[in-house]
Amino acid sequence: MSADILIIDDYADNRELLRLMLEQAGFRVREARGGSEGVEMALDAPPDIALIDLSMPGLDGWSVFDRLRADERTRRVPCAAVSAFADGARERALAHGFNAYLTKPFRRLELIETIQQLLSQDVEQKETGREEAF
After folding, report:
1. What mean pLDDT comes out for the span 33-45?
2. Edge-to-edge strand ranges of the sheet holding 49-53
3. Which residues contact 22 (CB under 8 A, 6 or more apart)?
4. 120-96-77 Cα angle (round to 5)
């Protein structure tokens, strides 16, 4: 069974590019057009991984992440921050609790490797019962 990836991004072009790369790699993909829709979709059916754009109008990626972590249904879902920001955004996102950081423009190899790492970390967490990484 392939992993279910939820893309939360307000730009259709970004969602389409991520979807195409992920589907070609064999993943199931769902798309949310913004933060509120993404939170609702994740709570209705928690994904295996969430890719969250940090800069969205309305409910931004930081707030989406906080809401997912605050709910029992999604608090263990690995989340990758997605951003074009370079000025310390990676460090800030990881310090905030995101499990990974992806830079726009997307590089296919980096994307797939990040997804695979998050999936293997999630399996390890479930097998050992450890929750420190989340």
Report:
1. 98
2. 28-32, 4-8, 49-53, 79-83, 100-103
3. 5, 7, 29, 111, 112, 115
4. 35
Crossing angle (nearest 10°) for helices 108-128 and 12-24: 70
- Please give the share of the chain, as a percent, with pLDDT higher than 90: 82
pLDDT at 67 over 70: yes
- Beta bridge partners, 5, equal 29, 49
Cα–Cα distance, 10 to 40 (Å, whole number): 15
Dig out the tokens for 67 from the structure.
């809401």
Give residue 75's pLDDT. 96
Q: Which of 41, 129, 116, 35 has the alpha carbon at shortest distance from 82? A: 35
What average pLDDT does the segment 107-130 reach? 80
